[in-house]
Amino acid sequence: MALLVKKPKGTADVVPSRSYMWHTVEQITADTAQQYGFKEIRVPTFEDTGLFVRSVGETTDVVQKEMYTVSAAGDSTFTLRPEGTAGVMRAMLENGVMNEGFPQKVYYILSCFRHENVQAGRLREFHQFGCEMVGSSSPRADAEVISLAKSVLDRVGLQNIALNINSIGCPECREKYRQALREYFEPHKDELCHTCRERLDKNPMRLLDCKSAEDQAIAKDAPVILDYLCDDCKAHFEKLKEYLTEMGIDFSVNPRIVRGLDYYTRTVFEFITTEIGAQGTVCGGGRYDGLIEELGGAKTAALGFGMGLERLLLVMQKQGCDFMEEKTCDLYIATMGENAVKKALSMTTALRDEGFFVEYDLVERGLKPQMKYADKIGAKFVIVLGDNEIESGSAKLKNMATGEQTDITLGEKLTEQFSQAMLNEMFSGFEDEVGGIIGKGE
Ligand code: ATP
Ligand code: MG
Q: Which of 69, 196, 210, 318 has the CB geometry, 3.0–4.6 Å to 192, for a possible disulfide?
């Protein structure tokens, strides 16, 4: 097959046979967030370009190199969101959510767009599960948000995932730190990559987040922010560490984490695995106490995280984590002849209305291929309908796992009888299990 058009580089399709993996993470993330009192928020896929420049930061990789900015004839330009937080904060401000009392806790699952070098775990359209908590500057909020991310990772079954935390201070501690960094990097200026040379003056902390190996080697001995924290920021960080310990959450302090977006203050954190190559950061987040004011709101403390779902799924598959089972067909009605099809239509409707998963032949195939199809889709039961069955008003209900056949009447009592058959089926599995356990004890 010579396909005329293929998917854009860095995008991915989810084929039907694999969508259950996505359902698993979507369900676990949403359930866990709700259990922590977070409510879902939905925002547009594109926003005013200025929103990301203001919030993510002019000197970040995301804004300088990775944004997809689009325009339509006669309209202004927009940017496909490279991350979730900015749009979510914009929406909360614009809709007055911030006036409804604190804390406000929201979560979302959305796609992000970044023009990046495509690699395993680094796509141009990817998906994030994100959470944001607005209105608390307390380290309790930091511990709570980290605990939520950790619960999600635990519940999907991940192992060996390390939590690294750091504090990058407030604007006051950071000014002193920036100066120290400038002094450190200045003698190496000519060895730095082009982008970093330009950032040295404006935003030297970005140099610590550079992906170039040469720059990373130079940054290795750079001063660390923790030595520059003011007393308040230091105390905040100490409290967070105490709370995490109290919650039984293991962590390491890694003074090298600065995160790729400008809006972070104080706490930053990452959950990292070494099992999927270089793109090992499954979840990253932190506090951004200045962002809401930057967007025109009142000064309001806030924090959150973004979890990359493609990376999460990569690790889950690598570690052989369990996925949610897909629903499978309860009953397949095999038909022979037009009368049987008509009967199947009314039976199917009645059974589906009772909540059963029912299919019948849509391709006009013979009985043998229909049975093969029923087997392939894993139907629990099959009924074969022909002229004889229509005439007698009864048919055989075949249990596909055991091969056992029982009589079933086709009239009004059908759904009741089928419900009973399904219950028996469930119960027989249960009896086996209980029998097994009792058997062992004897
Ligand atoms: P990295 O350092 O790997 O580039 P980042 O700091 O740019 O990550 P964030 O902006 O914090 O990432 O986004 C949060 C999470 O989203 C990341 O931890 C990662 O799991 C995921 N993520 C970021 N960029 C991509 C991408 N291009 N493809 C897939 N997942 C991504
Ligand atoms: Mg990045």
A: 196
